[in-house]
Structures are given as C-alpha cells and as structure tokens.
Amino acid sequence: MLIDIIAGARPNFIKISPIVDAITTQSNAGVKIEYRLVHTGQHYDKKMSHDFFEQLNIPTPHFNLEAGSGTQAEQTAKIMIGYERLLLDKPCDLCIVVGDVTSTMACSIVAKKVNNIKVAHVEGGIRSGDWTMPEEINRIVTDAITDYFFTTSAVANNNLLKSGISNDRIFFVGNTMIDTLHKQMPRFIKPEFWDQLHLNPKEYLVMTLHRPANVDNKEKLYELINEVISSSNGFPIIFPVHPRTAKILSETDIDTSKLHLAEPMSYLEFNYLVKYARAVITDSGGITEETTVMGVPCMTLRDNTERPETCTIGTNELLGTNPASIAPAFKKLFDGEWKKGGIPEMWDGNAAKRIVTHIIDLFGLQKP
Length: 368
Ligand code: UD1
Known about the structure:
The protein is of the alpha/beta class. The protein has two domains: 190 residues, Rossmann fold (3-Layer(aba) Sandwich), CATH 3.40.50.2000; 149 residues, Rossmann fold, CATH 3.40.50. It contains 16 helices and 13 strands. The chain has a seven-stranded parallel sheet, sandwiched between helices. α4 links the parallel β4 and β5. α4 runs parallel beside α5 and α10 runs parallel beside α15. The chain starts with a strand and ends in a 6-residue tail after the last helix. Bound molecules: uridine-diphosphate-N-acetylglucosamine. Uridine-diphosphate-N-acetylglucosamine binds next to α1, α2, α5 and α11.
C-alpha cells in the first residue's frame, strides 16, 4: 500500500519523524507498505524547516508543494491545489495528517475529495473549545472527515465518542511528539550561547510566544513580556523568537536588553535549553507536552488548552492572558511550590510503532 505522510509546519516535522521510521522498519521487514513524504512548504525557512529534517534524520521529502506564506485562505488554497495535482497524477491508499496546522486541514480535505482516499489523523480528537484559534478550526474540520483517529489521550477519545465517532475508528496510541523526544534526548546539544551567557542549570527561564492572540496585538505583547521580566527575579530569560512574533516585536518599544533574544532554535538545542530551565513560559501546545515529560514547570499564557492532561497530570498550568496572573505564578515557582507532575498514559516512545501496527491490521497487509 502507498501512504502519503503530510508535513507542513515545524511541529509536524517532529511528529512525522517516528512514523516515517516505523513504516521504514516494517517495509524493510517485508511488509508491502510504502510512503511518500509530502512537504507542503507552509514553513520554509532553514530554521523553521530544513534544520529539523537534518537533525531528526528525516528523509528528503518526495514532494514539496512550496505553499509559502500568505493569509489563512491563500495558504490553504495553495496547499490544496498542489496536493490535488499530486493525487490526480498518482493517488495513494491512505493520507496521514498530523496535528492541527493549516496543512493538516488542507490535505485531509483534498484526500477525501479526490477518489475518497482514507484519512488518518494523528493527534485526532483534541479540542480547546476556542473557535477563535485557527488550529481549533483545523482540528474540527479535519476530524469531521477523518476515517482513523490515532489519539494521544483519554480526553481525546471521549471528545470523539461524544461527537458520534464509533469506537472502532479510534486508536489510543500515545504521542508521536514524545516518541521523538525520547529518541533524541541523548543527542540534545548545548547551544553556543550557553557559555557566553554563563547559564547554569535551573537558573534561567525559557519563553516562546507565537499565538496570534498574544503576539498580533502590540500592546498585549508589550504587557505580557514586561510582566514576565518584572516577575522573574532577574533570572536570564531566553526568548527564541518565532518569525510571526519577530515582526511585531520590532515595532514595539519593549526593553529587549532584559531578554536574551534568539532566532528560532534547532530541535536539539531548544530541548537542551528546556530540559535544564527553571521554568518555561509559552503559548505553544507541543511545548507543554515536552515540559510535562521532562518534568519542567510550564506556565501557559492561554485561556484554554486542547491538552488538559498536561495540567491535570503534568507540570503545566494555564495562567490565561491577563498579565496580572504572571507574578503569583512566579512566586509559587520561586517558593518551590510548583507541582511535580507525572507522565500521561502511553507517552512512552512507542506511539508510531502502534500506529503502523494498526494500519497493517486495518489494511489487511501480510506480515512476513
Ligand atoms: C503555525 C501553526 C501553529 C504552529 C506554528 C509553529 C497554523 C494555523 N498554525 O503557526 O499551529 O504552532 O506554526 O511554528 O498552521 N514565516 C516565516 N518563515 C517560515 C514560516 C513562516 O517567516 O518558515 C512567517 C510567515 O510569513 C507568517 C508567519 O511566519 O508571516 C506565520 O506563519 P504561519 O505558517 O502562518 O503560521 P505560524 O504562526 O507559524
């Protein structure tokens, strides 16, 4: 069988890497399973894309749709046109999409509408309930036409069951982003600036911000960052800046001398930094999963999360987007009162292997 694996944006690359490996292992063992890796080109910078392929040893994509930047509709349209051309030329038997980015939604729609190709959604079923997030719309639309759901949590399973999906299409497999984390942890790289900044383990903070709700409004961004700076007890704050945030940051008069700004970092360097941080301040979803597994306190500057297990089980706490909630959280951190957290079920590094085993069963492929 031929499987298309879709990857478009930074977090996708991390999630597909172990799936590619698991398919390759089965194919080498004689199972008739092949894949085409389709890069949509949603993220295209060296630092947002190429470096991830290199560090995670992901093979060069078979196709690059070169969608590039644009509005939500422009990006979606470019990805859809490119992927439709590819499928009309040669359809696949299964289209695997991961996560919640524009590429996820765009390619699942195309696959379903061209020859009714089966769609598998890795990380299906998670919901923030916040319809102002483009990612939430992507999740809802994708899940509405998905055939097989590979899920990361019991909450996701319940969300799907509640929406009327039958149990035999839901496969609780764990988290492929965590597969990558487990595999790559021994290879983490100390960033070059570590020594220049005289950083010491657990004596600095890491911050990432890229959600439109936090960074597209200058005043909001200014307030949030200033509150983090003034609550941080003078700890160095390392802030790798997403391209979206960089644009707005350059238009504000935030005192950036209080921050250590960096370009978007490579996977192995960024996670080295996270592993040894006292805490992480973020509005990302994926990072809250990684901090949970590494036991690092995480403060999320969002009002909701589609990954509630990072709060109920892990080290994450939702602070909301009101700057007033930042100082009390830092007090708790510096008083040593942050929760220790545990690891969610099945986040054990074997999710991708389970996914491919299910695909082999679902498609009746012969095991050698
Ligand atoms: C996207 C995902 C988000 C994910 C994030 C991780 C959607 C809707 N959002 O958000 O879920 O958490 O990626 O990074 O898919 N840009 C560059 N270089 C690049 C890529 C983008 O400069 O390589 C610029 C674009 O021109 C654009 C901005 O960054 O102005 C935002 O990029 P976009 O792909 O629209 O969404 P992200 O904010 O990256």
